[in-house]
Amino acid sequence: MYPISPQLAAFVAKTESFTSNDASLAGLRQHYERMCQAFTPPKPEGLHIDDFTLAGVRVRSYLPAAPTPAEGWPCLLYIHGGGWVVGGLDSHDFICFELASALQVLVIAVDYRLAPEHPFPAAYDDCRDVWQAIQAGQGPCAINLHRRVVIGDSAGGNLAAALCLGLRDDGHALPKAQVLIYPGLGGPADLPSRRDCMDAPLLSTGDTEYYSALYLQGAGKPSAYAMPLLAGDLRGLPSALIAVAQFDPLRDDGMLYAERLQAAGVNAVLYPGKGLIHGCLRARGHVPEVDRLYDYLLQFLRSEVLTQV
């Protein structure tokens, strides 16, 4: 039904081989961790990794072995996906390895609290607290506060967008850019992608509704910090790269957010993700269309983070 490449189909089959009949929350997390481990490459040479806490939140830093730049390290704050319900520091080592090594920048990953034990706004608060701790000079090393980017995939893309909204609304220092990879931004249920990709590989429309319900339980009327597409004013936000996947029920969330950012005068670039599916970042090195996404992502980050302005 979905015309994905043979290489991507093989990735889907391997990913789905880790599912089981245990539908409990503990089972879901265990299977997700096993799947993530299977797709995590060895740690690159010349990368120092350290786990610690910032503002009471567990984080992991990925620091290149190169000398500290004179003005401090450019820094990427990485917020992992997993529907706000699964994932953690280990689940996204694969992309943090890549970003820190390829770009020679500091990456800090956030181990935010998970729903349903900790529904909204716990994850949002944790990400914001870590950002503010870095702003206050509590990071693991010298950081260039003018060359920070927030990046997240899926639920992490939601949190990255929400972080930018909250910081702007309160007049606090903003990232130089925001990178949202197949983000779930709280789009309406009648978006075409919800119907067209209802049973798409690795994420169905039903899945998105399930995870959102766990995250938003007890939140009352959702705010823009939970569902960024509810924001009435997108002016003054950081420049954005929004990468969507063609065969993903969340595709139109990202497309709509990019359109609204552009209409508000924000420099927003949309990567259309032709032939891609939700969760495909782990197919790096095995699927050419995923490698092209990485090439574009790294090019964008080089221009936003590594080019001194």
TrEMBL record:
Q: Does the keyword Hydrolase apply?
A: yes
The Alpha/beta hydrolase fold-3 domain, residue ranges: 76-281
Q: What is this protein called?
A: Lipase
Q: Which Pfam families match?
A: Abhydrolase_3
Keyword ATP-binding annotated: no
Top-rank taxon, per record: Bacteria
Q: Which organism is it from?
A: Pseudomonas poae
MF terms from GO for this chain are: hydrolase activity
InterPro entries per the UniProt record, alphabetical? AB_hydrolase_3, AB_hydrolase_fold, GDXG_lipolytic_enzyme
What are the alphabetically sorted keywords of the record?
A: Hydrolase
Q: Which Gene3D superfamilies match?
A: alpha/beta hydrolase
